Amino acid sequence: MRYLICEQQEEKGCDYTIGCGMCFYFTEAASVKEVMEKIIWPDGRDELSGLEGEDALNHILIVPAEHVVTVDVEALAKKVEGIRATERKKLEEKADRIELERLKSKYEA
To answer: Quick check: pTM over 0.70?
Structure first.
């Protein structure tokens, strides 16, 4: 199963306002217990745990990814770009028509 992991270090890092000391990532595991093992002992039990040292974790949030919606931002950005281009074109056409009417009235009179 796929899980979204949200970790926060005990210390706020260099600047809490920009999220230093926070990490978000996906991982695959058979169970939450296996996820916890990966988080607590990322380099194996012979190395420091995720709860020790200067980068020790203070908060851990595990979210099953079946409830996570992945958004195709690139496709949405293209759609927004298309909408903006259409709006610009309509405004340009309106300005051209106004200019055309102005010139017609100027030279037909």
So the answer is: no
